[in-house]
Amino acid sequence: MSNVFFRIIAPDLDEDGAQRAARDVARHLVSRGYVSEAPVRYLPTSLPRYLPGPRYAELYMERPAKYGAAFGGVEITATRDPRFYENGQEGFTVSCPFCHQQAVGLLWQKAMTSYHYGSSGILLCHVCRKLERIDRWTYEPNVGFSRLCISFWNAPHLREDRLHELTEVVDSPVKVIYGAY
Ligand SMILES: [Zn+2]
After folding, report:
1. Pair 2, 181: CB distance under 8 Å
2. Highest mean pLDDT among 37-41, 94-98, 113-117
3. Would you list the domain boundaries of the chain?
4. Looking at residue 1, what is its pLDDT?
5. Please, which residues have CB less than 5 A from ligand 1, an ion?
């Protein structure tokens, strides 16, 4: 069965900021009744997942009923190092933060592997020859690195005012990633 999701990431948050935002977002979602009070351990990912709360439908642009049994669940993740979050569709570009040229796919993948295994993750720009860590390149349109990730599973799109509300709680610029696996 395929899963649709959207994620809110905040690429500019540092480690402390991400921890603080994760706590504040959880408190906010629980206090508004958007999610259940305590997360459950969701077996496929083994991550704590908040189940829909009594006012969950108020988060979304449309009524969520059609998503049936697969519906719902919010995961809030704060990590020490930035993680790469994508949309499951591989349709994105990576460009140099200095000269804006697109990265060579193979070099990017190598740097990504290195980063993933705790190495430098440095990527060389083949045009301006500058070196920069992979999480500091520019990602478009809807992927990116972040220490904070709020994932909403199998739910309709978030209402604009709710996104605004959550952005205020996060207190840092956010990016919303819509995706499917
Ligand atoms: Zn460059």
Report:
1. yes
2. 94-98
3. 4-84+143-180, 93-140
4. 53
5. 96, 98-99, 101, 125, 127-128
For ligand 1, the distance from its centroid to the CA atom of residue 33, given in whole angstroms, is 47
**135: which DSSP letter?**
G
Cα(100) to centroid of ligand 1, in Å? 6
How distant, in Å, are the alpha carbons of 4, 44, 114, 150 from that of 177? 11, 21, 24, 10
Dist. CA 124 → ligand 1 center (Å): 8
Tell me the C-alpha distance between 33 and 53, whole Å. Answer: 5
Q: What's the pLDDT band for 157 if we cut at 50, 70, 90?
A: confident
Per residue in 79-93, pLDDT (tens digit) is 999 999 988 877 789
CATH no., domain 4-84+143-180:
3.30.310
| pLDDT confidence bin for 64, thresholds 50/70/90 | low
- Are the C-beta atoms of residues 159 and 71 closer than 8 Å to each other? no
Alpha carbon of 142 to ligand 1 centroid (Å): 21
Is the model's pTM score more than 0.85? yes
Q: Is 123 helix (H, G, I), strand (E, B) or coil?
A: strand
